[in-house]
Each structure stands twice: as structure tokens, then as C-alpha cells.
Design brief:
With about 220 residues, this protein is of the alpha/beta class. The chain is built from seven helices and six strands. Strands 1-2-3-4 form a four-stranded parallel sheet, with helices on one face. It has a two-stranded antiparallel ribbon with strand order 5-6. It is elongated, with a radius of gyration of 40 Å.
């Protein structure tokens, strides 16, 4: 009986030892697989980062001078009495500094807000403190400034009514200067004016909340 008991105990001990060894082996294999998987993931990440570094430039791509486009937008332009007198006396150099002329002329596109109509016609708007109207000959000043396009959507372009405004369209057209924000029709006033420079197109719109009073 004791021999049988010892035999059973001996066999149980061997089985337990086998289970312990098997569990240790299984755990070790699992750890190796997990470690291997992590190492593989790290390798993939490193390879991906290396590939990205090869495709990304070390520095920003240089933009050649021929592809750069410079746009200049000014505020209100008004050729008042003092400005026109100085212009008559000494030309554009008297009313604009050389540095300012260079900024305006060297820009690919220069846009100004023309705060007046070019005309000698029309009826002055009543009950308005300041009204402007400029002789069309002074459009040469805008040309010498390098102006490419003007906004006519402002509160002074109708100071002398639609006749003066119509003269403004004619004056600008003859000078080759584009205009946005006004026109002989609503469609023309809303028209997008496009200027193409260096292979790119730039669109210009102008709008104002000032509307003429219906007669």
C-alpha cells in the first residue's frame, strides 16, 4: 500500500514538474513573440520615418523672382485742389516721394479706391458737406503711379450724379485702367475683374453700402 502511495506521489510530482516546465516555456515563448512584435513595429516605424526624411526637402523650395507676385492696395485717393496744383507745377515727383512711387510702380498689381468721379459734368449732390469732381485729364497721375485697377464703390463716386460717373467709366477705359464696383448696369457693377500675372489669375470685386436715392 505504501509502495502504491509512493508511486502515485512520484508520478504526480513528475507531472507537476512537467506542467511547471511547460508553463515556463510557454510564457517564455510568448514573451519572445511579444518582444519580437514590438521590435518589428519599431523597425517599421524607423523605416517609415527614414523614407519620409528622404522624400522631404531639407529646406523650403526657393521661389524665383519671376514667379513672385506683389499686390498693393491703397486707401482713398483724392486729387484735390492742392494736389492738382502741385502736380501741374512739377508732375508726379512733387506729390509722391520716390520711395512711394517705387512701391506702387514695382507692384505687379496696384489697386486704389478712387474717391471721386473723373468729370466736368453733372449736378452737385444736395445736402452733402463734401463733394468731389476731378478733371479727367488728371487720370495721367494714376497712370504715372502705376495704378492697374480702381474701386468705384464708395460714397463720393456719385457726388455729381450718373453723368459724372459715366464720364469716369470713359476716362478709365481710355487710360487702360480697370474698375470694379460700378458700371453702366448692375451686372457690370458686380462683375469680377480678373488680372493674370505670372500664370495666376487674381479676381477683384468692390462693394459699398451707399446707394443713390431713387428719383
Amino acid at each position: 500500500m505504501n509502495r502504491i502511495f509512493r508511486g502515485v506521489l512520484y508520478v504526480s510530482s513528475i507531472l507537476l514538474l512537467i506542467l511547471v516546465v511547460w508553463a515556463a516555456y510557454t510564457k517564455g515563448t510568448k514573451n519572445e513573440k511579444e518582444t519580437s512584435g514590438v521590435a518589428r513595429e519599431e523597425t517599421i516605424v524607423e523605416e517609415t520615418e527614414a523614407a519620409l526624411e528622404e522624400t522631404e526637402p531639407d529646406t523650403e523650395p526657393e521661389v524665383s523672382e519671376s514667379t513672385k507676385t506683389t499686390l498693393v492696395f491703397t486707401g482713398d485717393i483724392l486729387i484735390g485742389n492742392s494736389v492738382s496744383a502741385n502736380y501741374d507745377a512739377g508732375g508726379i515727383d512733387v506729390i509722391l516721394s520716390e520711395d512711394m512711387q517705387n512701391v506702387l510702380r514695382n507692384a505687379d498689381i496696384t489697386m486704389v479706391n478712387e474717391e471721386f468721379p473723373f468729370s466736368e459734368r453733372g449736378t452737385q449732390m444736395e445736402d452733402k458737406q463734401y463733394t468731389f469732381r476731378i478733371n479727367p485729364s488728371y487720370v495721367s497721375a494714376l497712370d504715372e503711379m502705376g495704378v492697374d485697377i480702381v474701386s468705384l464703390a464708395n460714397n463720393h463716386v456719385l457726388d455729381y450724379g450718373t453723368e459724372a460717373l459715366s464720364d469716369t467709366f470713359t476716362t478709365l477705359d481710355q487710360a487702360g485702367i480697370l474698375y470694379a464696383g460700378a458700371g453702366e448696369s448692375k451686372e457690370r457693377a458686380e462683375e469680377l475683374k480678373i488680372i493674370e500675372v505670372n500664370g495666376k489669375k487674381y479676381g477683384f470685386l468692390a462693394a459699398s453700402r451707399v446707394l443713390p436715392v431713387a428719383s
